[in-house]
Amino acid sequence: MPYWGQLGLQDAASPVMTQLTEFHDHAMTILVMILTFVGFSLLSLMLNSFTTKTLTENPILESVWTVIPGLILLTLALPSLRLLYLMDEVMTPALTVKAIGNQWYWTYEYTDFNNMGGDSYMLATEDLSEKTPFRLLEVDNRLVLPCKTNIRMLITASDVMHSWTIPSLGVKVDAVPGRLNQVGLMITIPGVFYGQCSEICGANHSFMPIALEARSPEDFMKMIHENTTSS
C-alpha cells in the first residue's frame, strides 16, 4: 500500500517489480553522479578567474565527452531492454484469468474454471469496514489469485479504452475494445494489492479501482472448490 508522503516506489510483490525497482535505483544513481559532476564543473569554471578565454579546440576532451556519455547510455539501455523483454514474456501459465474493463467497473473470468467470476465495483464510503477500510480503493468482489504461480492475465474492454494497473506488481496493461492483451504475472507474497484504471475512460474514470487478493495455492483451490460446489 502507498502511504502519506511516500516518495519512492511501492514495495515490490513480484519479480518484475523487484527488477523495476532495482533499475530505478540504478538509473537514479547514475543521474545523481552526472548532476554532481556537471554542477561541480560549472561552479569551478564560474569561480575560476584563471580560465583561459583563447582555447578554441581540444580533440581529446571532445572525444572524452562523446565516448563517456555513450557508455553511460549503454549502461541504461541494456538493462532497460532486458526488462522490456521480461515484461512481455509469458511463461507457460498454470492459470489464465480474463479482466474486462467496463464503464465503470471490472469483470473477471477464471477461464480455466468455466469462466467463473463476476463484476467488481468500487465500495461506497458508507459500505467500508475494518476489513475494507480504504476509500476509493476497496471493491465488493476482489480478484483472488494464488501466490508463486505463473498466471496469464488477458485484458480487454467492452466499451472504451481502460488500463489494468497494479503498481506493486509492476503491471500496467491497456484494455482495448475488440483486442486481447496479455501479461504474465507471478505474485511472490500473499496480501491485498490495489490499483486503479490508468486510462481516462469517462466521467467515473477515477471510481473503478482494482483490488487483488493473493492467497496461497491451497487456499485458492479451496475457494475455487467452494464456489464450484455452491453453484
Task: Give the strand line-up of the largest sheet.
Answer: 3-2-1-5-8
Q: What would you give as the CATH superfamily of the largest domain?
A: Cupredoxins -  blue copper proteins
Radius of gyration: 24 Å
Number of strands: 10
Distance between the termini: 33 Å
Q: Using the alpha-carbon principal axes, give the shape.
A: elongated
How much of the sequence lies in strands comes to: 25-35%
The CATH architecture assignment of the largest domain turns out to be Sandwich
Regions with little confidence, pLDDT below 50 for 5+ residues: none
How many independent structural domains? 2
Number of helices: 3
* Assembly state (oligomeric): single chain
Mean pLDDT: 89
Helix vs. strand class: alpha+beta
Transmembrane segments: 27-47, 67-85
Cofactor: Cu cation
Protein name: Cytochrome c oxidase subunit 2
Catalytic activity: 4 Fe(II)-[cytochrome c] + O2 + 8 H(+)(in) = 4 Fe(III)-[cytochrome c] + 2 H2O + 4 H(+)(out)
Polypeptide structure, described:
It is a multi-pass membrane protein. Pfam families: COX2, COX2_TM. Residues 92-226 form the Cytochrome oxidase subunit II copper A binding domain. Keywords: Copper, Electron transport, Magnesium, Membrane, Metal-binding, Mitochondrion, Mitochondrion inner membrane, Respiratory chain, Translocase, Transmembrane, Transmembrane helix, Transport. It is found in: Mitochondrion inner membrane. The chain has 231 residues and is of the alpha+beta class. The chain has two domains: 15-88, Orthogonal Bundle (Helix Hairpins); 95-230, Cupredoxins -  blue copper proteins (Immunoglobulin-like, Sandwich), CATH 2.60.40. It is 33% helix and 25% strand. The strands form three sheets. A five-stranded mixed beta sheet has the order 3-2-1-5-8, with no helix packed on it. The protein has a three-stranded mixed beta sheet with strand order 4-10-9, with helices on one face. A two-stranded antiparallel ribbon has the order 6-7. α1 runs antiparallel to α2 (59-88). The longest helix is centred in the N-terminal third of the chain and has 33 residues, at 15-47. The two termini are 33 Å apart. The mean pLDDT is 89.
